[in-house]
Specification:
The protein contains 5 helices and 10 strands, in the order βαββαβββαβββααβ. By secondary structure, the protein is α+β, with helices and mostly antiparallel strands.
């Protein structure tokens, strides 16, 4: 059996999740904390990669002793999250821990992932949203917001999303299935939610930039199918800044759903 963890983190201080030499990363902090708590060197495998400055409301990893698919510990399963948090910095917190089958993989066994992108739409910046949302001071009125909602609906379905992949990125194929995409407004915060069976590099950030282009009148909601069909990065909008992006939910078939 290996250990499965659900955690949240603020990505501001980190160069993403994945270990990158001596750079500060979430995986590096988890590796250190697990070694301190369990007394053995551990392999930490994550459900995804994240860019510098990207956050997670839910991120999933497995923990096993280095070079194996097992982890032995005398710490009760119900106490592992609390015990591990004592070894982690304040901007990373484990909130759920359980043992799973040794052949479980936190990335390849994902059914779908949901991201949320947060836009702070106000003429005045907020210190509480600093590095936690994209500060966008130009007013998005009710009509512009309605257009964003209509545009987001066109993302749903199975498509080649090459237009929403970072320039220069390479994948075997760019077809993904988006199960839902919606825009919500909560006061000065606009949130874009999108779930899919997989995501291309910068896909959500480019989708967000494209929705903002719709709000600005540079594109219409009816243009989105043509943007998708173009399979050309130049057809879509800008890449929204990293600080507004959160991995929001990771769902597996055989692991109970959980929210932070």
């Amino acid at each position: 059996m290996k250990l499965f963890l659900r955690l949240s983190f603020l990505g501001t201080a980190y160069n993403g999740y994945q270990v990158q030499g001596e750079q500060p990363t979430v995986q590096r902090e988890l590796t250190r904390a697990c070694a301190e708590l369990f007394g053995v060197r551990c392999d930490i495998v994550g459900c995804s990669r994240t860019d510098s400055g990207v956050h997670a409301n839910m991120f999933c990893v497995t923990v096993a002793q280095r070079g194996t698919d097992e982890l032995a510990t005398s710490i009760p399963e119900s106490r592992i999250a609390v015990a591990l948090n004592a070894h982690l910095p304040e901007d990373i917190a484990v909130y759920d821990a359980m043992f799973v089958s040794s052949d479980f993989h936190p990335r390849y066994d994902v059914q779908y992932k949901e991201y949320v992108y947060r836009i702070h739409n106000s003429p005045c910046r907020s210190p509480f949203e600093q590095n936690r949302a994209w500060f966008y001071p130009k007013r998005i009125d009710d009509q512009a917001f309605a257009n964003m909602q209509k545009a987001a609906e066109h993302f749903c379905g199975t498509h080649d999303f090459s237009s929403f992949m970072a320039q220069g990125a390479t994948v075997a194929h760019a077809v993904r299935t988006v199960t839902h995409a919606r825009v919500e407004r909560k006061g000065d915060i606009i949130e874009f939610y999108v779930a899919a069976d997989g995501f291309l590099y910068n896909m959500v950030r480019i989708m967000t930039g494209t929705l903002v282009a719709v709000a600005e009148g540079k594109l219409s909601p009816e243009d989105i199918p043509d943007v998708i069909d173009a399979k050309d990065r130049a057809a879509a909008g800008m890449t929204a800044p990293a600080m507004g992006l959160y991995l929001n939910r990771v769902v597996y078939e055989h692991i109970p759903k959980e929210t932070p």
